[in-house]
Each structure stands twice: as structure tokens, then as C-alpha cells.
Amino acid sequence: MAQFNTGIVGIFSVVLLFACLCLFVELKFTKFCIFCHSGHKNFLLLPDIDCKKNPPFLVILVTTEYWQLQARTAIRQSWGKERIIGDKRIVSFFLLGTLERQNKSAETRIISESLKYKDIIQKNFIDTYYNLTLKTLMGMEWVHHFCPQSSFVMKTDTDMFINTFYLTELLVRKNRTTNFFTGSINSKDHPIRNKVSKWYISEIEYPGEWYPPFCSGTGYVFSTDVANQIYIISPSVPYFKLEDVYVGLCLDKLRIPLEELHSENTFFPSKVKFSICRFRKIVTCHHVQPSEILMYWNALQSSQDDECIGAGPAE
User: Fold this and answer.
1) Is the distance from CB of 98 to CB of 124 less than 8 angstroms?
2) Which residue in 111, 112, 142, 150 has its CB near the most CB atoms, within 10 A?
3) Are residues 6 and 70 in the same domain?
4) Share of the chain above pLDDT 70, in %
5) Enclosing domain of residue 281
6) Domain shared by 3 and 66, yes or no
7) Which residue would you say has higher pLDDT here, 4 or 79?
8) Which backbone phi and psi does 109 adopt, to 5 degrees?
9) Whole-angstrom Cα distance, residue 64 to residue 290?
10) What residue ranges are annotated as transmembrane (predicted)?
11) Do 126 and 227 sit in the same domain of this protein?
12) Regarding predicted confidence, which is higher, 221 or 129?
């Protein structure tokens, strides 16, 4: 009898272990069950905006981490500051997860920052590089619930310089408000199988030889209807830790093509040497320090009446 009971316990343990393993695999490789149409009550922090009363033309979603206060401050004082360009309203919000280890002091500072600036969007997931996909989906979810009245959405990072004036000009000129997605396009990229790489992807995670076309996660822009479509379809798209590739997988399933915003390159996923004339005709520049963000922005603003001859992309 004792042997029989021991056998039952052993079988039960194996079944339980198998069930837990299946759940882990499903969460890790298959679905974003954290965000499966979870509703707006699950947000920890929300910005103060009423898109129904005053719909923005462009919502800029900036991925950030707790310790990047200096960058957030620089962005708030420059390209991320709410403004009207022409008759188009531009607003910016910061996307944030939670700390892996509980830190009451840091959490209190973020709450205070949120109360002061009212521009932080937060949900309860661990804030790591490989959870950027979750963070980006959170932004899509926020747009879906709170700001579907906007015309365009941009996703970018804190180490970026964004020329919101030129971006707005190009979006108005493009005159596209549905099924539109643009950025620095990677049309033929493949998984990196080198295990020492930051972007290493195993064949279990992605068995294919090539990724579908995707835009660099440093900065891409899309019509708001695309944010809604990605959020809705996301539970059926296998989880992928590289956020920009994951968005490309969603777009591929939705059959939404990537488009150039301009005949010349305007999205730069690398650093560009600053000059006033050059930066008047770019949309994004990467690897920018907080002090450089302010310096570049102030230089552009103080030289608006200066002429540039033969500089920048052709009109």
C-alpha cells in the first residue's frame, strides 16, 4: 500500500512539473498573457490627458528606465515638450515597467515624478531590455484604450534626438492616416546565432532564416489605427524578445507594408554628427546624451531664421 501511494505521489509530481513547464513555455514563447486585453484598470501610472476633448496629432511614446531621470528631464525640456506645430498638437509620454528588486525609495521617486509631470505610463512587469516588447505593447494598449483619437504614434527611446518639427511637416505632406508605418527599414535581416551577442536568438525562439521587414526600434512612426491593430492581434503572435522584430512580425501578419517617409533617409539608428543645417532635415538620431539633446534643440530653435543652402535631404 505504501509503495502504491508513493507511486501515485510520484506520478502526480511529474504531471504537475509538466504542467508548470507547459505554462512557462506558453508564457515565454507563445503569448503575452500579461496583456491579453487586460483593460485599463491594470495600469499602475497613467498620464493626465483627455484625447476625446483635445486629440493630439502625434503621440510620442518613449521607453525609459527608473534611473534615466536626466534623460527624461532633457526630453521634457526639448523635443518631448507638449507643443503646437502649425495647428498640430504633439504630446510625449514615458513607458516604464517595475524594478526587479523592490526599492521603495525609487518607487516613491517615480510616483512623485508622475504626479509632477503627469506623463508616465506604467504597468507591473519587470523592466529589462528583453521586456521591451512588453513595454512597447503597453504603449499600444494605452493608445487603444485612451487615445485612439490621435492621428499618429511614435515609439522611440531616451537616447534619441527627435526633430518633431520636421517629422510633423513630413507626416502632413505624406497625407496618410491609415495602415501607415515608417522608420529606418530593415528589409532583409536574419537572426544572430552567436551566443555572446546581445541580440542572440536561438533556433527554438525563431527557427526561420530571415526576419520579416521591420523598422529599427530606435524610432518608428505609425498611424494610430495600426497601434490598435497590433494590440488586438498581439495575443496570436508568438512572443519575441526583440521588440522591433516582434512589431515586424505583427505587421507581417496584418499585411501592413513598411513605407519610406521621404525619398531621402531621415531616420538614423546611429549617431549623426551635429550641424544645424543637417539636423533640420532629419527625424531621428541615436546615441545622444541628455546634454546633447538640449544643446542640439536649443541650437535649432535659436537659428530658425538662418539659411541653409544645399544641406539635408532634397525636397
Assistant:
1) yes
2) 142
3) no
4) 85
5) 40-302
6) no
7) 79
8) -65, -40
9) 13
10) 6-25
11) yes
12) 221
Q: Are strands 120-126 and 161-162 parallel, antiparallel or unpaired?
A: unpaired
In a domain? residue 310: no
Cell of 156: 522611440
**Domain co-membership, 192 together with 101:** yes
pLDDT score of 143 more than 60? yes
pTM of the model: 0.86
Residues 157 and 193 in one domain: yes
The secondary element (H helix, E strand) that includes residue 107 is helix 104-117
Rounded to whole angstroms, the Cα distance separating 269 from 162 reads 12
C-alpha cell at 53: 476633448
pLDDT at 16: 43
Q: In this predicted structure, what is the pLDDT of residue 308?
A: 82
DSSP 30-43: T--TTSTT--GGG-
Are 284 and 268 in contact, with CB atoms under 8 Å apart? yes
Which residues on adjacent β-strands are paired with residue 76?
none
β-pair type (284-285, 83-85): unpaired
Q: What is the pLDDT of residue 310?
A: 55
* Residue 229: pLDDT over 90: yes
| Same-domain check for residues 288 and 183 | yes
**DSSP secondary structure string for all residues of 238-270:** PP-SSHHHHHHHHHHHHTPPPB-SSSS--B-SS
Residue 90 and residue 225 share a domain: yes
